[in-house]
Amino acid sequence: MRVLIIGRGRVGTALARALRRAGISVSTLSGRGAAPAQVRADLVVVAVRDAELARWATLLAPLVGPRRGAVVHSAGAFGPEALDAVRAAGGATGQLHIALSFADRRHPPLLSGARALIQGEPIAVRLAKRLARAIGLVPVCPRRSGGVDAVLYHAAAALLSNGAIALAHTACELLIRAGIAAHEAAPLLSPLLASTAKNLGALGLPGALTGPVRRGDFDTVAKHLARMAEGDAGHAALYRALLTAQLPLARALSEASTASLDRIATLAKHTAHAELAKHTAHAELAKHTAHAEHATRPKHATHRMPSKKGKLPVRRAG
Description:
Layout: E1 2-6, H1 10-21, E2 25-29, E3 43-46, H2 53-60, E4 70-73, H3 84-88, E5 92-98, E6 115-120, H4 122-134, E7 138-140, H5 150-178, H6 182-203, H7 212-215, H8 218-229, H9 233-253, H10 258-296, E8 302-304, E9 315-317
Parallel strand pairs: 1-2, 1-3, 3-4, 4-5, 6-7
Antiparallel strand pairs: 5-6, 8-9
Helix pairs in contact: 5-6, 8-9, 8-10, 9-10
């Protein structure tokens, strides 16, 4: 199989390297350049930024017609319809999205064992599955008609992958407040996050959940919230939201008593209400202070007008 990868960014570079290691003929093309004069490949993988997909679909349409291979894209938030220009010209189209985090071209993730969402027309799906398996990916193909909702699929992936980094940033800030050196915070959290991912893969849900909510440890949770509230209010708000998200998992495990989990739920809700009330009180105080200051100011300024013909100066309201 011959593969052409359009795009030499993080995803395109990682794919090209893996395909070459697997002994597959692969060529690459810059995603910022012009279309080639012709396409000599069984499968074209468009690995460019989302905003460039439509442009490349238009460029490839006259080059990949009937019986001339297939075109798939690597974007997560778009289904095969992103390549409709190719499909209208008679080409087979599809989506091949690798559910991994590609942060740096110099440090690509390990592809082997990762899942790849593959959907589209039969020829494109067949070729994409062949490519995926050649480099150790596990194809995930939708079983329902109409395929996977790409927007919701991508939202789920972004929530976990991007959200985990945002959580790590918050956790680093708390570690620094606790006394951990800034340069040690991320290295401390990285193995912890990796072990959590391993538990998720091995145990699934809800089994991968650990920590005080699983145990129904109200006192620990309360201390966490109280100490966080002394600093950035956003930290406590995020912690409360995650408490609420953990509770259904803890209930499904049935290791903690219902009463203890109910107390944690009440704590999360009441502390949120208390902070809202505090914020509202501060806003009302600021509002009343502003009104009081306005009321003490003179309503009209007075100006002394110059006298005319010996008359006394007249004071007029300005």
